[in-house]
Specification:
3 helices, mainly beta, 20-stranded parallel β-sheet, binds 2-acetamido-2-deoxy-beta-D-glucopyranose, three-stranded parallel β-sheet
């Protein structure tokens, strides 16, 4: 691509300029005049081999400068000295195979984020860190790419340079540490967040002193065998801990996270967990836990008081984990707002399952089955009167009791899509004002008018993908539908299923004339004729008799 020097002269308000994959070989070919308002400059995925920035480089308002996947090998301090005028810049050099960077190149620069992931392929990481000596950045990314082989393992001495870098959030994705030990963390005492995703970690060394500022730790996709192997006592002030996608079966141990009394967010999803008698010993000491994700694990059996009294849990996600539960496993979770029990094979006959959840507003119950595909009037949902969102899609439902949700007076959003329902059972809800009802992908054919005429103007209903009947038997509904099209979500996909000739026609375009049929007229006429004949005969007979008598 060729750009004339004056190419952008007229674009005085230009804020975002993307020149990715344009075959640029030098930044000198990008016209820089009049780009003072530029906030984003993306020249990633080109063949630029020098980082030499011109004096006219529009640094004043620049927030994002993306230089990733070019051919930069050497960076000299004078090349990028103009960046010292910027504050809070995000600079990405990701995927440039750097061979040399002048020590202290970025000394006293203030960045928001710096991305040097995949840069230390042919030199060791200490060369990069020397170049970054004296820099101040909120985020620093130093990971590497998974598919590049033969990169030396990281040693603790290579990380010494971190001592002279001021950084709050450090990310090391995809690393191999050679001597993973307390000394690896020597220069990380100021960190607030550390991301060690996919770093082949089996054991977090004990005795890391003084990570007292650390609030968030990401240990996802590693190879821990036991939760205790993370030696959580080293970071007692953690508020967020992520251990998802662990590659080994993760034992939850007992009291492994006990010291994390400030922890609010714990993600243990997709970590092959299988545990019985969950969870009070496993979660011992986590008195401030609000968000717990145990989804996509193997199997959990909950004990009687699975979560201790006084628990502050607000969100629990167990979806796609086989769950065995006593009668009321969630009892006393006073603050729980969101519960996801999708695809847990939980016993839906247990009417007391949801007892003790006064604050529950969202219940996701997708892909669970009910006895004979029926939600009875007496059911497990009646114990959560404050529920606003109820997701019951893909539950093989055939029938819903006509008062099934009568205790749920606050329902606003109900998803019953992808079931086998043959009736639009709107009478199951007390309040059809401001409600969203999704009955898509069911087997509904005929809808009596009384099922829809109470649906208020600020409600929405999705009836798409039902085999709706478009004969005179359904005329009342079809007329209602046309007058209330504003309440319908997805009218494009709300179509006739019968009769055959108009299958697939949009319901909104169907016109039917359903007067009294000819057969009925014929019968009426015949009856009238018969009546007249009979009465004539009778009258004649009486008249004859009278004359006869006279
Ligand atoms: C710095 O930049 C980041 C991301 O662009 C932004 O979220 C943050 O608010 C900025 N901080 C300041 C102080 O402008
Ligand atoms: C790096 O930091 C250490 C400890 O903070 C200090 O002793 C050393 O002088 C610094 N090195 C440079 C080159 O600034
Ligand atoms: C729980 O983790 C799964 C898988 O990592 C994710 O899809 C889901 O969104 C998480 N749940 C919440 C409530 O964040
Ligand atoms: C469970 O439901 C919550 C609330 O809707 C949602 O945020 C979360 O992503 C769901 N979990 C999974 C694994 O989809
Ligand atoms: C109607 O509901 C179905 C099933 O949930 C969904 O796939 C579709 O996107 C919905 N329509 C609109 C317009 O949201």
């Amino acid at each position: 691509m060729y750009l004339a020097d004056t190419a952008f002269v007229g674009l005085i308000s230009l804020k975002h300029l993307f020149l990715t994959q344009t075959g640029l070989t030098s930044i000198a070919f990008v016209p820089m005049y009049n780009l003072d308002n530029l906030e984003t400059l993306d020249i990633g995925s080109n063949s630029i081999s020098s980082m030499q920035l011109p004096d006219s480089f529009p640094v004043k308002n620049l927030k994002e400068f993306d230089f990733q996947l070019n051919g930069i090998e050497n960076i000299l301090a004078k090349d990028v000295s103009i960046l010292k005028q910027s504050t809070n810049l995000s600079l990405s050099l990701k995927g440039n195979s750097i061979k040399y960077i002048e020590p202290r190149t970025f000394n006293s620069n203030n960045f928001y984020s710096l991305n040097f992931a995949g840069c230390a392929n042919s030199v060791d990481l200490s060369v990069i860190l020397a170049g970054l000596m004296g820099v101040n950045t909120h985020i620093l990314r130093l990971g590497r790419f998974e598919d590049i082989q033969g990169i030396p393992e990281i040693t603790s001495s290579m990380l010494q340079g971190l001592c002279n870098i001021s950084v709050a959030e450090l990310s090391f994705e995809n690393m191999h540490f050679f001597d993973f030990s307390a000394s690896t963390f020597q220069c990380m005492t100021g960190l607030q967040k550390l991301d060690l995703t996919r770093s082949h970690i089996k054991l977090f060394p004990p005795g890391i002193g003084n990570m007292s500022l650390l609030r968030e730790l990401v240990l996802s996709q590693n190879v821990f065998e036991n939760l205790c192997d993370i030696n959580s006592a080293s970071f007692p002030f953690l508020t967020h801990l992520h251990i998802n996608g662990n590659f080994e079966t993760l034992q939850m141990g007992s009291g492994c996270l006990e010291k994390l009394s400030e922890l609010q967010y714990l993600d243990l999803s997709c970590s092959r967990i299988e545990t019985s008698n969950c969870c009070s010993t496993e979660l011992k000491g986590l008195n401030n836990l609000k968000h717990l994700n145990l989804s996509n694990n193997y199997q959990l059996s909950l004990q009687d008081l699975a979560f201790p009294e006084g628990s502050k849990l607000e969100l629990l996600d167990f979806s796609f984990t086989r769950l065995q539960a006593p009668t009321s496993p969630f009892n006393k979770l006073k603050f729980l707002r969101v519960l996801n029990l999708s695809h847990t094979s939980i016993d839906t006959n247990n009417q007391h399952l949801l007892q003790g959840l006064p604050s529950l507003t969202t219940l996701v119950f997708r892909e669970n089955s009910f006895l004979s595909g029926t939600i009875q009037n007496d059911n497990l949902f009646q114990f959560v009167p404050n529920l606003e969102v109820l997701i019951l899609s893909s539950c093989e439902l055939k029938v819903i009791g006509h008062q099934a949700f009568h205790t749920l007076k606050k329902l606003k959003h109900v998803d019953l899509s992808n079931n086998k329902l043959t009736a639009l059972s709107s009478n199951a809800f007390t309040n059809l004002n401001k409600i969203y009802l999704n009955f898509a992908f069911n087997r509904i054919q005929i809808i009596p008018e009384e099922m829809v005429n109470k649906i208020s103007d600020n409600s929405t209903i999705n009836l798409s993908h039902n085999p709706l009947d478009c004969t005179c038997s359904n005329i009342e509904f079809i007329l209602w539908y046309k007058q209330n099209i504003g309440k319908i979500e997805d009218p494009e996909k709300t179509m006739c299923g019968t009769p055959r000739p108009i299958e697939g026609t949009k319901l909104s375009t169907v016109t039917l004339s359903c007067g009294v049929s000819t057969a009925v007229i014929l019968i009426i006429v015949l009856t009238l004729l018969l009546l007249i004949t009979v009465s004539t005969v009778v009258i004649k007979y009486f008249l004859k008799r009278r004359y006869h008598l006279i």
